[in-house]
Amino acid sequence: MKLAYGDKPVIQDLNFSLAQGSFTVILGENGVGKTTLVRALLGQLRPQAGSIEFLNDQEPVKLGYVPQFRNVDEEYPLSIREFVALNLYHGWTPWLKKEEQKRVDWAIEQTNLEKIATRQLGQASGGEKQRAYLAQALIEHPNLLILDESTASLDVSMKYELLELVARLQKQQPLSVLFVTHDLPLAKQFADHFLLMEHNKYVTGPIDELAVQDVGAEHV
Ligand SMILES: Nc1ncnc2c1ncn2[C@@H]1O[C@H](COP(=O)(O)OP(=O)(O)OP(=O)(O)O)[C@@H](O)[C@H]1O
Q: Is 36 in the pocket of ligand 1 (CB under 6 A)?
């Protein structure tokens, strides 16, 4: 597959398959194309050559996406619960159906946000905000969850908390995880496979085969 912005190639000859149910980490230096690959997976960027195929034989692939941490304004008007439910509001009906309410409850419960669900999102801590983004991504019951540097700028215990939630969900239900990060210890702890991106070279394999020297000092 080739991905480019106009005539500026970013990814050339990437041939990569993601095993169903795996927890795969994507590593690589700044600017190597990790977010570009995520954008292509999300359907925001079309490959200039090759293609992305979702070969799930049981059910269609449903993507969930947890973005990089962005601070939300303290005055942000929605409660955590309203924020989690945001993508369920369609058209003019300002209320949710019973079944949709249940999905919101489930996502809030899975991310340990029950106690603070009525709090304004702007008043939540960094880790709680990121769990709210995770809950929002879970609403459609995705079977492929993409986290794009979602733990960057969280402190160590919050990083682990977020990924422990993701790892638990991955084991509970048919869920594959793609996790873009610069954090090698976190990758080693949670992932089972890796994709290491370098300019025009891509290495994949089981996480045990990833050596620290392959990744470079900036990741450690
Ligand atoms: N919309 C765009 N138009 C043109 N070039 C872009 C665009 N977005 C990204 N790029 C360029 O594509 C290259 C890859 O960027 P990308 O954001 O995918 O890298 P990355 O590996 O995610 O980096 P980082 O670790 O810093 O987030 C960079 O050279 C970047 O400047």
A: yes
